[in-house]
Specification:
Length: 413
């Protein structure tokens, strides 16, 4: 087609492609050595040579781009299963699919497509080095959280990986600690009948879960109502002293939590709310309200105020205007703030330590007691459940954020 052309990047030297693939092989060998410092150089060299040989064979075979990943998957599955074990081969198969696609991606020069055609080699190097650093930081931050998940399935009562787990032996994994959440390790799950009502009322972990949801839901309702009203008032141009009031309302986010909890403890002691459910609910509402104010205020920043004036001209009162015009448009921000408030209440432990007794123990408080009094991998199982709940809630927040942007015309539908 005249007037149009497609940029075709130059093909790099063969040594460039094989060198990078060999570097990934050296990294794989380093991880496979599992801390055996004496054999680590051997694993390093063997990994680099095997990956480079695989890359050379894949390029010489003429396999297409669509099939290269599947070829790598099958080859790495066979080699990993033959040298170590089938579970290890499955992990290597996933890695092999990625390496197979990368070989042809590097050899064709398509790695230069995200950059301008005139980009120098140093610019290309920095482009991918910067992204590698960002990825390494992300892995560094997320690894302590992700590593809890396999540890929670440990058959042995240890907080570390056993040799069986490292060898991916199925006998080394168990769900016993998840059962222990329900039964505190006192009852055999295969030998009980009609136990649910007793467990629900008596088990320490289940009672803590019930308290966390009960306190979290009520605190979220209070903080959402108060935070939404405060945000609407602060968004008004007629509001006097907006900045000082805003700073005062979000101060629980800034002041150290131990100071806020201590102040609440002294205040609640005078009005007999210490060691009561409502004392914890009000404390968590205070801590969650700033998150609602910030998210709703951000949503109101893009709100078209002419809609409320049009509603008033049509005869609607302030309450009807709020629920029929304003609330539907700011609802994603309100729900996002409510989810943040719920997460704050669900994870909070400092205020509970000072305001609650054994009857109001929440999940974080029970985990704190378990760490101090009785070390058990049940804590890892509970932490895994909390991670899953947090991921689900944050996913909902992200979906609501995108919906809010679409409603406000900030992103395509």
């Amino acid at each position: 087609m005249s007037g149009q052309y497609q940029y075709i990047p130059p093909q790099p030297p063969l040594g460039f492609t094989l060198g990078i693939i060999g570097g990934f092989g050296a990294l794989t060998g380093l991880l496979t050595a599992q801390g055996d410092w004496g054999l680590m150089p051997l694993y390093w060299v063997v990994g680099a040579l095997l990956f480079s040989a695989f890359g050379l064979a894949l390029l010489k075979s003429g396999v297409g781009r669509g099939s290269s990943g599947w070829v790598g998957l099958l080859v790495f599955l066979a080699v990993g299963s033959g040298l170590i074990s089938f579970p290890f081969g499955v992990l290597m198969a996933v890695w092999g699919f990625f390496i197979g696609r990368m070989v042809l991606w590097l050899d064709s020069g398509r790695y230069r497509l995200p950059l301008p055609p005139y980009a120098s080699s140093k610019e290309v190097l920095w482009f991918y080095t910067f992204r590698t650093i960002c990825g390494a930081i992300f892995v560094f931050l997320i690894t302590p959280i992700i590593i809890l998940i396999p540890l929670s399935f440990n058959q042995e009562p240890y907080f570390s990986f056993t040799p069986g787990m490292l060898a991916l032996d199925s006998a080394a994994f168990s769900t016993r600690w998840y059962w222990d959440i329900l039964q505190n390790g006192m009852v055999d799950p295969e030998a009980i009948t009609g136990w649910w009502s007793d467990v629900w009322n008596n088990a320490q972990w289940v009672r803590s879960i019930r308290n966390s949801f009960y306190i979290g839901i009520l605190a979220t309702i209070l903080s959402t109502a108060l935070g939404t009203l405060a945000a609407i008032g602060l968004a008004s141009s007629d509001m006097p002293w907006r900045r000082p009031i805003m700073a005062l309302l979000i101060s629980p986010m800034i002041v150290p939590l131990v100071i806020t909890a201590s102040g609440l403890a002294f205040f609640f002691a005078d009005i007999k709310l210490v060691k009561t459910y409502w004392g914890i609910i009000l404390a968590h509402a205070v801590l969650g309200t700033p998150f609602v104010i910030i998210t709703v205020t951000a949503t109101l920043s893009g709100f078209d105020k002419s809609l409320t004036r049009a509603s008033a001209n049509m005869g609607a009162g302030p309450v009807r205007t709020f629920f029929k015009v304003q609330m539907p448009l700011i609802l994603p921000g309100v729900i996002s703030g409510a989810l943040f408030a719920f997460i704050t209440s669900f994870d909070e432990v400092v205020a509970v330590l000072q305001l609650a007794d054994v009857r109001q123990r929440t999940i974080p408080r029970q985990m704190f007691s378990g760490i101090r009094e009785q070390i058990s991998p049940t804590i890892l199982a509970v932490a895994t459940i909390l991670v899953i709940i947090s991921i689900a809630l944050l996913t909902v927040v992200e979906l609501l954020r995108r919906r809010s942007e679409r409603l406000r015309g900030m992103s395509p539908s």
